[in-house]
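Build the 3D complex.
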Amino acid sequence: MEATKKENNLIVSVSPHVKSDETTSRIMWTVSLALLPAMASGLYFFGPKAFFITALCIVSSLVFEQAYMKIVGKKSVTGDGSALLTGLLLGMNMPASLWSFSPFTVHVPIVASFVAIVITKQLFGGLGFNVFNPALIGRAFALISWPKAMTIWNEPTAAFLAMDAKTTATPLGVLKEEGIAKLIEIFGDKMSLYQHLLTGNRAGSIGETSAIALLIGGIFLLAKRYITWHIPVSFLGSAALMAWVFGGKGALFTGDPIVHLISGGMMLGAWFMATDYVTSPSMKNGQIIFGVGCGLLTMLIRLKGGYPEGVMFAILIMNCFAPLIDRGVRSKVFGAVKQDKSKEIKK
Amino acid sequence: MGLATFNRGIHPPDKKTLAAHSPVTEAKPPKIVVIPLSQHAGAPCKPLVTIGQEVKKGEVIGEPGGFVSAPVHASVSGTVVALAEFPNAMGRMVNSIVIENNGKEEWTALKDSPDYMNLPAEELKEKIKAAGIVGLGGAAFPTSVKLSPPKEKTIDAVLINGAECEPYLTADYRLMLEKPTEVVEGLKILMKVLNVNKGFIGIENNKPDAIAKMKEAAGGAAGIEVVACEVKYPQGAEKMLIKAVLGREVPARGLPMDVGVVVQNVGTALSIYEAARFGKPLIERVVTVTGEGISEPKNLMVRVGTKLSDLIEECGGLKSGSVKVISGGPMMGFAVSTLDIPVTKGTSGILVMPEAEITHAEEFGPCIRCGRCIDACAMGLQPYMLSILSEIGHYEEAKEFNLFDCFECGSCAYVCPAKRPIVQLVRLAKSMVKP
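Done.
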């Protein structure tokens, strides 16, 4: 589209003639790098199964993207790192228990990758044009299609090569079915519960369990200015508020916001899924609306819905609104409002 | 309290060291000059000479074609050899007068005014107009028009733009170091013409020596203040500089005079002084010839109409592998397709870039809506949205996203990780709808 013609061997193009060294693929690789602490934690607690599932998601995502581009005759874009990041996020959002041959559930991550890459991303026009977060649609599809397989949770073991882990319920599952008292009882006391939730020593999806590791990655992205505080803080803040006000049994203002913040997919969702550039608003004030919406919907589903966890659906619902928010929220154009604070000049 | 500045903006590497230490030297007198009759914003000039006519240096060869216009003068003495259309830096064909230099350097009679500060304001303004002075920062807006605000606009400050925020360029920097007194005199003349008693000189803080020199030169003068500004592009854009120095926000789609300010570039101030003091018309200006692709970067005093090829030759020629020659700076300059085009009043630099320094424009990706352009836009726009709407042909909708507030500084395209040609898309949209 840009006319770059060579005449007298000189290149002619429209200004600016210099560009920053930031690239789309560098962003994708950096976000992937930021996920490594949480991934390492997942591998530590869920063993080789976690590795196999994540690797399967990444490889499937890359293969599906490469194949799709080949079939439709477009230039390969697999090198931009976006499919790799989608695969990684998808894997981190799956239970390690899926690596099972009897009953056979190994196809689940493969189908989820197909849904994420081909249906959610490429059929909508590819990177930048997808309405929904591809990894989350992949996961949602899997959860709806194989509800049982997707909710078998292995107990975390620090035994690195253990392939046979006991199954158990997630903390949010216990919270939903039996209440906070039972949850505390399982972990001994409240401090021990927090400790397990922070370190990741609890049942859950591969990459979601360690709040600390996710926080490290999130802060890294903040420091690198790849994300801003707007979405994570408004997401976590509104969820915490909801948890505190409505999360208690019986009386208002008796809920435990901390348990809600560091359990389920809250940290992974708030720092890495809701902050996806393409599927979240671009304007800062729009991002706050988006984040608050995610937080409120997450807690509505957790407290009143049929599922124990609501992060995934909350983000997906807000994804629908992102383009709308972007069109509704306008920036303040320079000079749009008269300024009165100008320096007085004595005549 | 930090340095004076505006909101958002970008920090490209300034690359000024390439030419910063080279004092301004006279460029070799060109053998031939091509003087476009339209080198300013506004109406083109009407030619006053015919082919074969002898002209002297400083002689008027084109008269203003309207109120918003400025006369052009012969920059050499010699013979008019052609009167025809020639390409300018933007690639447009413009009527131009070609003069062959006879090497005699004969000046036309100029009116010396040693006591120029005692001349009435109207007469000073007339001198500025007759000298063909336009904004030398790049936009080349006729100065006399800026000095004739409508009656309902009250001007209370003159601001000299010494920001020189375009990377690579050092023309204004050298002038501030070498001719600070003349620049301050130019400012005083402007203040007198506009009947204001407050003058400011805004300079980016990466030029501490220029700030010191200008402070020294302005030392005794009442009402003149030198303001150090944060190093941030586009600090030298009129609206941004006014915001930084005076804290005033020019209304959207408005002009500096709407907030009582007239802004003039450092080089313009010098030309104003020379016009008032010596009656010297604008026939030469400082041009920074620089970039990684030029052998000897220099700051040259160049006659208007000198071809780019002459200047590049004088600076040791193009290094092998040079692929882009830009008239102006890297952020807003025009890439030229031939070196056969002339320096005009608005040419602040000639930048030669090798392959390694450029991003090939055709390799751009889809917008990932990362929002970096929003954080860069000094005008508070949503450049990504403009680029997307323009790309799909929704030009009217782009207008709703304040398309016409964009002054094409290029900050958005600079930060874009997908390397999208946002400025090009904005220009396309602007050309497709009425403001």
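The two ends of chain A are 53 Å apart (CA to CA).
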